[in-house]
Specification:
CATH class of one domain in chain A: Mainly Beta
Order of helices and strands of chain A: EEHEEEEEEEEEEE
Largest interface: A-B, 38 and 38 residues
Distance between the termini of chain A: 48 Å
Structural class of chain A: mainly beta
Oligomer: homodimer
CATH architecture of one domain in chain A: Sandwich
Number of helices of chain A: 1
Largest sheet of chain A: 6 strands, antiparallel
Shape of chain A: globular
Helix content of chain A: under 10%
Strand order of the largest sheet of chain A: 1-2-3-10-5-8
CATH topology of one domain in chain A: Jelly Rolls
Strand content of chain A: 35-45%
Number of strands of chain A: 13
Chain lengths: 161, 161
């Protein structure tokens, strides 16, 4: 049935970042509405952020449009332009290839949530604005590296640049 | 800036249905968030329905995934499974090619609104469930016809089947 039974779609906490970079994401969980309902052309997720949690490392996508709408609580959108308060109903767009790295942080004492849409593409490259890391994704999965393509090492992961 | 200034994005009332089929859509308006913010891979619109207004004629898409989330008020989702009340936060998914025609109707005395996402594709065919009509869209625009491809006539438009 087209109307979703949201109570039947689980929230999943999983972070693919390598090493200690994954640690700040314990308070983030995703409800994968698009995957659960048969959409294949774009992902639609509800992202829930507990107090103090981050949506992602600050990043931008080369091939995939991204859109979000706040649905609950208050978050701070951090991008190259500074910090922007996001309340329920507030929206943000990140066109593919726009090198304005962004993420949301829940700086409040209450849970927050937003709806996010991202195109499904055959391949994708994303760059992380605050560390020397990129990720390439394709049919065989995702691989993190330095921005010059060289491997990350245990020492390098988490280096601020 | 990625955060959208929603007050600067106009609501537009425009209906491309031919002839008298366009008449029931005076109470519908669209705020084209995706177009206004440089997204090209999918459309993101806020659709506002005044009391009594319809989102569209009941239809389904062959090439384009569609997703919606209610953001204000109450609507009735009508599809092949019946009628379903949609409250703020409720969501629905319509995968491309799923022949379950759908639309939303505002049966209340207050305005209602929802966020809707639809893939941008090179071409598209949509079928209307309750009348003998289809629409084909491509680089040269959109053309409405009967489902067998023959032209609509003034008499045919609005015929219930």
């Amino acid at each position: 049935m087209p109307k979703l039974n949201l109570s039947q779609i689980p929230f999943v906490s999983r972070c693919s970042y390598p090493g200690k970079l994954a640690q700040p994401f314990d308070g983030r969980s995703n409800q994968r509405l698009g995957d659960a309902s048969g959409l294949t052309q774009y992902g639609v997720n509800i992202v829930r952020l507990e107090p103090g949690a981050l949506s992602s490392l600050r990043h931008y996508h080369m091939q995939q449009d991204e859109f979000l709408m706040m649905t609950e609580g208050t978050c701070t959108l951090i991008d190259d332009d500074g910090e922007h308060e996001m309340l329920p109903g507030d929206c943000a767009s990140f066109p593919a290839g726009d090198a304005n790295g962004h993420h949301l942080v829940n700086k409040t004492d209450s849970p927050a949530a937003f709806l996010v849409v991202g195109t499904h593409t055959q391949s994708e490259t994303a760059f992380y604005s605050d560390i020397d890391m990129m990720v390439r994704s394709g049919p065989d999965g995702s691989a993190f590296s330095r921005k010059d393509g060289s491997p990350l090492t245990a020492d390098q992961i988490g280096d601020n640049k």
